[in-house]
Amino acid sequence: MYVSTRRLITALSLLTAVVLFASGCGSDESSESQQPTSAAPTTPQRMDVQSLWIRPAPVGGNSALYMRLVNGTAAPDTLVRVSMSEADTVEIHESYQRDDGMTGMRPIGPLPVAPKSNVVLEPGGKHVMLLNLKEPLVSDSTVAVRLTFARAGMRRVQASIQNTAPSGN
Question: What is the pLDDT confidence band of residue 82, given thresholds at 50, 70 and 90?
Answer without folding.
Answer: very high
